[in-house]
Amino acid sequence: MAEFKQNIVGILGGGQLGRMSAIAAARLGISTHIYCPEDHCPASLVTPYFTCAEYDNEAALEKFAKSVDVVTYEFENIPIDTVRFLKNYVPVYPGEQLLEVSQDREKEKAFLNNIGIPTAPWAPITSAADIEMTFGKWGIHEGVLKTARFGYDGKGQVKLNEGDDINKAWESLNTDKAVLEGLIDFDYEVSIIIARDLKGQCAVYPLTRNDHRNHILSVSTAPVHNEEIEKQAASMARKLAEAVSLVGVLAIELFVTKDGNLLANEIAPRTHNSGHWTIDACAVSQFENHIRCVAALPVGMPGLHSKAKMINLLGDDITKLDDYLATDGANIHLYGKTDIKDGRKMGHVTIIEK
Ligand code: AMP
User: Fold this and answer.
1) Is the CB of 183 within 6 Å of ligand 1?
2) What is the CA radius of gyration of the chain?
3) pTM value > 0.85
């Protein structure tokens, strides 16, 4: 009898991105094996295979690697050593270079600028004196100071205005390595998501506009009707994807300046919150494309069929579902999290409109 066999995809990390990737994989008949240090994590509830172990547990990692055909990750703070260890057994996508660059804001900005992708003006910082010196050089005494590593959703960053106590700001970050960025008076924020398969074929998703609440993504709207900006963003995404020989999905968060130019703020070597709407408004979602690319299938064209507005359910927003349950065109996605915390991403709703 003929056999139809699909790869098993191992995913490091068990949050909502892993969960939605596992669901997309299941639709393609692909099994996932989630590896996560926390039990009962969102992805563990929807996957046939699950390992609960730390990222430095070599025995567990070896067993995991031998049970899958390929490994990917759903968040960027996976230790590089974990990836290096796994690579002795199976391919890991996206590759180490992209992971390393996206883990450190200094490396990230240097890399982006090197390949011709503009960012806000920035400088590496290792002391309060560096901040004074940089402000002196710029002739402007305001900016955003960000820890080089482990910052997200506005955590690990502080805005500096003229006259602020620089020593206090530096100490508040409690780090030995940071970057200082010029404050961008942007018009609005967007992101672009690209998928690239093993043969180098790419699919770029329509540009998404992002609105934040307390530095956390609140609403994403797509598509953005600005051909010029979209062209610029897509070209940056292609340039970056080629430069790192991307296999999988990556996102670039960007500022649209008042004069209509784009500055890259951050890259994510994975599926992105601002692309959740692609599940309901595209033929092939960012999650399906990520799985396709790492599992050696061809990338799919997005096939946008609706306009979309994605609303994150943060903290106790999840207790107020009644309106969404009654809304025409509302697609509700909950992540299986039971502990409500302020600002925690509990789920999202995508409202589609033809
Ligand atoms: P980040 O943690 O770098 O993604 O920053 C979180 C949010 O802070 C961004 O989405 C912006 O709204 C704001 N932000 C970050 N960097 C800057 C900057 N250089 N100028 C103005 N706003 C910024």
Assistant:
1) yes
2) 20
3) yes
